[in-house]
Design a protein that fits this description.
Shape: elongated
Structural class: mainly alpha
Oligomer: single chain
Order of helices and strands: HHHHHH
Strand content: under 5%
Radius of gyration: 16 Å
Length: about 160
């Protein structure tokens, strides 16, 4: 396998891994929205938008993780550990929110996820600046998700 093929394989595996985390979470939580009678907060987007946004975000995560993996950055192990950790925390948030309907716990878990993702983005940026920048949409979306999560708890408590 030449270098071009190795690079393509690294990107493909990294993107597929990130998408698999989201896909498995979606399968586990399929049809398990906490309570369809909950009032939605202002600015809540239509349901069809969530899988579209998450597919884009997981793809960006996979691309940036591949950039780190392929770099010769001395801090890449720590950066990739943070990446994997935040993927697990992200996965668990969907279960807390959708399967268990634990809105307040989910909010605090999401704040923890946002902190991990921010730390990961900083570590990525130190290794490969473009990889850190690719995390900006994820950080923005997580912030918006935290608003939605907290507002849903607040108006339905």
């Amino acid at each position: 396998m030449n270098q071009k093929q190795k690079t393509a394989a690294a990107y493909a595996v990294s993107i597929l891994l990130a998408l698999a985390v989201g896909g498995i979470a979606a399968l586990i939580n399929a049809g398990k929205f906490i309570n369809p009678e909950l009032a939605e907060p202002p600015l809540a987007p239509p349901a069809w938008l969530f899988p579209v946004v998450w597919t884009i975000l997981y793809t960006l995560m996979g691309v940036s993780a591949a950039q780190i993996w392929l770099s010769d950055c001395p801090g890449k192990s720590d950066a990739l550990f943070l990446y994997g950790t935040q993927l697990v925390v992200n996965f668990l948030w969907t279960i807390f929110y959708f399967s268990f309907g634990a809105l307040l716990l989910s909010f605090f878990w999401l704040v923890f996820l946002l902190a991990l993702a921010a730390l990961m983005a900083v570590r990525f940026a130190r290794c490969v600046p473009a990889a850190g920048k690719l995390q900006i949409p994820y950080l923005v979306w997580l912030s918006f998700a935290a608003y939605l999560n907290f507002a849903t708890w607040l108006i339905n408590r």
